Amino acid sequence: MLDPARSYDLIGDVHGCAHTLEHLLDQMGYHKQGGTWRHPSRMAVFLGDIIDRGPRIREALHIVHDMAEAGQALCIMGNHEFNALGWSTLAPPGSGKQYVREHSPRHARLIHETLTQFEHHPGTGMTSSAGSTTCRCLSMPGVFVWCMPAGIRG
Questions:
Q1: First-last CA distance in the chain
Q2: Of 22, 51, 54, 112, which has the fewest Cβ atoms less than 10 A away?
Q3: Each residue of 30-64: pLDDT tens digit?
Q4: Given this model, what pLDDT does residue 93 score?
Q5: Taking the complete model, does pTM exceed 0.85, yes or no?
Q6: What is the mean pLDDT of residues 12-18?
Q7: CA-CA distance, 63 to 54, in Å (whole number)?
Q8: What is the distance between the alpha carbons of residues 42 and 83, in angstroms, rounded to a whole number?
Q9: Is the pLDDT of residue 152 over 70?
């Protein structure tokens, strides 16, 4: 639940750029205390797409995860996290697919950088980072946040 008395900083499309994120947080008045970025009166709300593309995807996830675990941030799952979960989740039996997200050349290209940065860190897979308490739905009277993953059509 969002606190209507608190101020929030909306941050989207980090895409694995941890150093840029740290610079942004610093410029916004956040300070690293006890290993976690904190602000005395505001909270960060990450609007998804923390992973893919950038040079420091794991670092970016750790920054966001640590802030969320410390109560300093909330994060909405973006389409890139949604697709990563689908890539690594086995499809239900009888679906005719091996994984929820098809392992096509196009999808492999989109997730390549994330997979590469995780391959040397067994036990710290994307699903545990992208699907943990870092990703939450936001609710507040009068405010609705709709997350429509790119792969869903209706």
A1: 28
A2: 112
A3: 999 999 999 999 999 999 899 999 999 999 999 99
A4: 94
A5: no
A6: 94
A7: 14
A8: 30
A9: no
Q: Is the pLDDT of residue 87 over 80?
A: yes
- 49 contacts 81 by C-beta, under 8 angstroms: yes
Three-class DSSP category at 95: coil
For 57, counting Cβ atoms within 10 Å of its Cβ (0-12 exposed, 13-18 middle, 19+ buried), the class is: buried
Neighbours of 154 (CB within 10 A): 3
Residue 97's CB is within 10 A of a number of other CB atoms, namely: 12
Going from the C-alpha of 80 to that of each of 14, 53, 54, 147, the distances in angstroms are 11, 10, 12, 12
Residue 22 CB contacts under 8 Å (≥ 6 apart), including other chains: 32, 37, 63
Q: What is the DSSP string of 67-90?
A: HHHTTSEEE---HHHHHHHHHHSB
pLDDT band at 125 (very low <50, low <70, confident <90, very high): low
Residue 111, CA distances (Å) to 25, 96, 141 in order? 26, 22, 36
Burial of 66 (0-12, 13-18, 19+ CB in 10 A): middle
Place of tokens 């670092």: 59
